[in-house]
Design a protein that fits this description.
Elements (H helix, E strand, L loop, with lengths): L1 E5 L1 H11 L7 H15 L2 H23 L3 H8 L3 H8 L9 H10 L32 H16 L10 E5 L2
Parallel strand pairs: 1-2
Helix pairs in contact: 4-5
Length: 171
């Protein structure tokens, strides 16, 4: 069991926040895991989740570039209303891969698709924040490459079970 230590101020805030929340039982965790497995098999849920990731990346890129939606729409050559429908995840807008690629290119982003087997789990590890002259010779890049290699070795293993944790406020 993992232990989390927090400051007295945070402990008081957490106590107030959680005072009426019942403890999680093993059966609850099993039901939650099963619900997650069911959602992972629902194409509508998965599509909505991926659309949400796409929208999140748009907002991140806009924030990094210091632009707003009006500026992005103008740069893209599309109406602000159309972009708003995408950003608000309007169900009536079912955009194509072409739209995703075109929009992300306006934000200096590359789009990559990956289709792992349903029993495989994928994680994205961002290793290098700024380009350097010879990135693969730097110590941090070698460590990152080793981490990615080690992760790839583990990728064919079953997903780990969620471990419960114990909340212990600082004394």
């Amino acid at each position: 069991m993992k232990t989390v230590t927090v400051s007295r101020e945070d402990a008081h805030w957490l106590d107030e926040l959680l005072k009426d929340v019942p403890l999680t039982q093993d059966l609850d965790l099993e039901a939650l895991a099963e619900a997650g497995r069911v959602l992972d098999q629902d194409p509508e849920y998965v599509a909505d989740y991926l659309k949400g990731l796409f929208v999140s990346e748009i907002y991140n890129a806009m924030d990094e570039q210091g632009i707003n939606a009006n500026q992005l729409a103008q740069r893209w050559g599309k109406s602000r209303q159309y972009l708003s429908k995408i950003l608000n995840e309007d169900r009536r807008v079912n955009f194509t891969i072409d739209t995703i690629v075109d929009l992300m290119m306006q934000l200096d982003r590359r789009v990559e698709l990956h289709f792992p087997h349903k029993r495989q789990h994928t994680a994205v590890i961002r290793c290098v924040r700024k380009p350097v002259k010879n990135v693969w010779e730097s110590p941090s890049a070698r460590t990152c490459a080793e981490s990615v290699s080690n992760f790839n070795l583990m990728a064919h293993q079953p997903a780990p079970e969620i471990a419960p944790y114990e909340y212990n406020p600082a004394a």
